[in-house]
From TrEMBL:
Species in which this protein is naturally found: Clostridium sartagoforme
Classification via PROSITE patterns: NUDIX, NUDIX_BOX
InterPro entries given in the database record: NUDIX_hydrolase-like_dom_sf, NUDIX_hydrolase_CS, NUDIX_hydrolase_dom
Alphabetized GO MF terms: hydrolase activity
Name of the featured protein: NUDIX hydrolase
């Protein structure tokens, strides 16, 4: 089986958090084709990744946290513009430049939930998985951890509309039966939690 290769990338659009690129590639039959890629990376970082075998760090962290004192899974209900509605999700956020994923986990957990990171489960944590590779090169660190403290929304950014939900296994089962808007990562985390 021959490996298909991207031959050229051109920027189509560039916004603060998302960019669109046109990628020319050779398919398995040797035909030149084109694909549109959504990415969080700059054109320089994307060229480095594709053509220079550069290091590709995860774009974000997604946090599967269990609250120690409450013995509950930490979920959030967040307003998301692309669906014009609220969705059940896991706490998450972009990795800032110069940050490692542990610093990002601490910052985002505190910002979105008011809770404090206690310990990361290194064995269960996956430091790089892809989110939707048919459309984007976005990758995340899927982080299992424990946390403590009292939920709060006092650290939210102006554009974040988030409610923290601590769920027992019984409540998690109810969410699976009743919620219409749920992120796939949260769905899988809940299903794993209630096993």
């Amino acid at each position: 089986m021959s490996k298909v290769k991207v031959k050229n990338i051109e920027k189509l659009a560039d916004t603060k958090y998302l960019k669109l690129y046109s990628a020319d590639y050779i398919n398995k039959k040797g035909t030149l084709r084109n694909w549109t890629i959504a990415s969080r990376k700059s054109i320089e970082d994307l060229n480095n990744k594709f053509f220079d075998n550069g290091e590709d760090q995860p774009d974000a962290v997604v946090i599967i946290a269990k609250h120690i004192e409450e013995d509950k899974l930490v979920l959030i209900r967040q307003f998301r513009v692309p669906i014009n509605d609220y969705v059940i999700e896991l706490p998450a956020g972009l990795v800032d430049e110069g940050e490692n994923f542990i610093e990002t986990v601490k910052r985002e957990l505190k910002e979105e939930t008011g809770l404090d990171l206690v310990k990361i489960d290194e064995e269960r944590t996956n430091k790089k998985v892809y989110v939707s590779v048919g459309m984007t090169d976005e990758s995340i660190s899927l982080v299992y951890c424990t946390c403590s403290g009292n939920p709060s929304n006092e650290n939210l950014e102006d554009d974040e509309d988030i409610e923290v939900i601590l769920v027992s296994k019984e409540k998690a089962k109810e969410i699976l039966k009743t919620e219409k808007n749920i992120d796939v990562k949260a769905l899988l985390a809940i299903e794993n939690y209630i096993k």
